[in-house]
Amino acid sequence: MKQLYKYMILFTYLILISLLSLLPSGVLPVTQTGLFPHADKVAHFGMYAILTFLIFYTWPEHFYGNFRQFLPFLYVILWGTTMEIFQGLGGYGRNFSYLDMVANTIGFFPGWLAWRWFFNKKFQEAVQSVRSD
Among 22, 33, 34, 43, which has the highest number of CB atoms less than 10 A from its own CB? Predict the structure, then answer.
């Protein structure tokens, strides 16, 4: 049951990112307030850091080892790039942006580090259980 909640949280968050990425820019608070230049890049960075954390949280046993722990990096790049392509094609006042893609991609690292920091013991236990099987 706990795993089901993890799936629900992750997929709800993916829907949230998708909606925020594809809504017209005029309705988004970050673009309306103009807090500081490129505030939207900070939002992209944070959203994809949370996404990375949730991917690892949902499937910790799938991403052990030196190489496999960076598979979510590819997922983050693919999702962020797909959202940017859809923004460019959508015609809702959103544009394709390489800088947004960079912010999405860089957001992986704090999400990964946060997961490793918060769940290091669980990560090690998952690695040990997979290796002992």
Answer: 43
Amino acid (one-letter) located at 110:
P
Q: CA-CA distance, 61 to 19, in Å (whole number)?
A: 29
Token pair for 76: 């983050």
8, 10, 18: which is closest to 56 by C-alpha? 10
Q: What is the pTM of this model?
A: 0.79
For 64-113, how does the pLDDT look when each residue is reduced to its tens digit (9 = 90+)?
Answer: 767 777 888 999 999 999 998 988 887 666 788 898 999 999 999 999 99
CA contacts within 13 A on the Cβ side of 31 = 11
- What DSSP state is assigned to residue 38? T
Q: Is the dihedral of CA 107, 112, 118, 119 positive or negative?
A: positive
How far is residue 52's CA from residue 106's CA, in Å, rounded to a whole number?
11
Residue 28 above 80 pLDDT?
no
Give first-to-last CA distance, the chain, whole Å: 23
